[in-house]
């Protein structure tokens, strides 16, 4: 069946819940990720979105690109607001003021809203066990305000606040591992996804909405503007990130790990780094450091998937 | 029909700046940003729909005969469809200066 999977797009939901006319940059994989997520979730969804690229591009005041109830809140409290929505709807359904219905509650945020600013509230929501999904669109910097580093920026990346130069290699700290932080909360479902693998992404979102309790999905969203790549290659770089092991696709259901896409053999990490303008200053020594770390983390993940 | 932002007076805004019309971003035509347009060679098209699935702007529409073509009202000309097309039947053609 795999050979024919190229025809499967025609079986995907046709309705667009994230419409055309949004103001995302050309070739934005984050807008694509939102579109696919909303295709998977359907209309019975309530979304709270933290400040960030997707909030700015989808709702300049007189217009909105959303077909679902959607609220913009500050950077830190998207997850807290959606937990309030969930508790409120539960109470209204119990009192019979709203017909009983399965509604999916989704909080969305960029990597800045998730890894830096909203970390405490997300932790609180996961601990309280609300029936909601938190989706992080990780484009590895604060792209909305002009490519400032976040704690999700990978080692060696040049951004405007961690510029590469004579005395600096760019970002000198490692990327924060958000899915592992979510796993540490012992929540029922954690997954990583990438819009370059659309069926895998939609499958994971559907699974997260069907599971009772908090779920966390981390989506790598390639940003051609901030990563300094051609606008037509954002899908290709997402695929390379997965094939080189930089961003492995896995899911954790009740603490048991599973690789959802396993490359036959990992490509050298240099394939992923060399085309990107934000990594162009790296020498062989630094790419060696990145390669060692990627290999080590990937093997650690494989071990966890095998239950060792 | 939403008016452009500069024509709206503050009295006309809903409390809390609520937008009451869903999907009204369709009134903003992002096709004007484009510098290259995708041209589909319908002989090579196998109607797989990969271009439709990968378009970030939902700007690929399915024609009645089953082929896919770009909706030039919203297409921003990123070229993802041309690169991801498995048969390579989409080419990006530069928009002429007017």
Brief account:
The complex is a heterodimer of chains A (308) and B (98). Chain A has 308 residues and is α/β, with parallel strands linked by helices.
Description:
With 308 residues, chain A is of the alpha/beta class. Chain A is built from eleven helices and ten strands. In chain A, a hairpin with a 2-residue loop joins β9 and β10. Chain B is of the alpha+beta class and 98 residues long. Chain B has a domain at 28-94: Alpha-Beta Plaits. Helices cover 10% and strands 16% of the residues of chain B. Chain B has helices at 50-54, 80-84; strands spanning 36-40, 60-62, 68-70, 90-94. The chains are: A alpha/beta (308), B alpha+beta (98).
Low-confidence stretches of chain A: none
The proportion of strand residues of chain A reads 15-25%
| Range of helix content of chain B | 10-25%
Note the beta-strand portion of chain B: 15-25%
Mean pLDDT of chain B: 86
Assembly type: heterodimer
Helix/strand order of chain A, N-terminal first: HEHEHEHHEEEHEHEHHEEHH
> What's the CATH H-level superfamily name of chain A?
Thiamin diphosphate (ThDP)-binding fold, Pyr/PP domains
Could you say what the CATH architecture of chain A is? Answer: 3-Layer(aba) Sandwich
Quick one: overall form of chain A?
globular
- The CATH topology label of chain A is Rossmann fold
Return the structural class of chain B: alpha+beta
| CATH level-1 class of the domain at 28-94 in chain B | Alpha Beta
- CATH architecture label of the domain at 28-94 in chain B: 2-Layer Sandwich
Largest sheet of chain B: 2 strands, antiparallel
């Amino acid at each position: 069946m795999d050979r024919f999977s190229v025809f499967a797009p025609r079986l995907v939901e046709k309705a667009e819940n994230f419409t055309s006319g949004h103001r995302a940059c050309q070739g934005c994989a984050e807008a694509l990720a939102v579109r696919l997520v909303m295709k998977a979730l359907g209309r019975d969804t309530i979304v709270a979105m933290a400040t960030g690229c997707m909030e700015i591009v989808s709702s300049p005041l007189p217009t909105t690109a959303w077909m679902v109830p959607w609220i913009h809140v500050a950077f830190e409290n998207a997850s807290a607001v959606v937990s309030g929505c969930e508790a409120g709807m539960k109470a209204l359904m119990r009192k019979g003021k709203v017909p009983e219905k399965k509604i999916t509650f989704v909080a969305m945020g960029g990597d800045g809203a998730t890894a830096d600013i909203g970390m405490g509230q997300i932790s609180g929501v996961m601990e309280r066990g609300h029936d909601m999904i938190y989706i992080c669109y990780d484009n590895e910097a604060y792209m909305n305000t002009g490519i400032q580093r976040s704690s999700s920026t990978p080692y060696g990346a040049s951004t405007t606040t961690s510029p590469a130069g004579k005395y600096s290699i760019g970002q000198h700290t490692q990327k924060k591992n958000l899915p592992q932080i979510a796993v540490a909360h012992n929540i029922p479902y954690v997954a990583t996804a990438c819009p370059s693998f659309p069926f895998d992404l939609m499958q994971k979102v559907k699974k997260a909405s069907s599971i009772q309790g908090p779920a966390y999905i981390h989506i790598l969203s390639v940003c051609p503007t901030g990563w300094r790549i051609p606008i037509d290659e954002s899908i290709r770089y997402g695929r390379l990130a997965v094939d080189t092991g930089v961003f492995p696709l896995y899911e954790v259901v009740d603490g048991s790990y599973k690789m959802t896409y396993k490359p036959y053999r990992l490509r050298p990490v240099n394939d992923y780094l060399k085309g990107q303008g934000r990594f162009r200053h790296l020498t062989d020594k630094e790419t060696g450091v990145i390669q060692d770390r990627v290999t080590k983390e990937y093997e650690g993940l494989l071990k966890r998937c095998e239950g060792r | 029909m939403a008016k452009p932002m500069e024509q709206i007076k503050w009295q006309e805004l809903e409390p809390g700046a609520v937008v009451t019309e869903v999907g009204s971003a369709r009134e903003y035509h992002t096709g004007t940003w484009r510098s290259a347009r995708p041209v589909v060679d319908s002989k090579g098209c196998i109607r797989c729909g990969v271009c439709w699935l990968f378009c970030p702007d939902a700007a690929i529409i399915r024609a009645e005969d089953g082929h896919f073509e770009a909706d030039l009202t919203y297409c921003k000309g990123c070229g993802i469809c041309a690169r991801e097309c498995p048969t390579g039947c989409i080419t990006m053609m530069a928009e002429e200066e007017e």
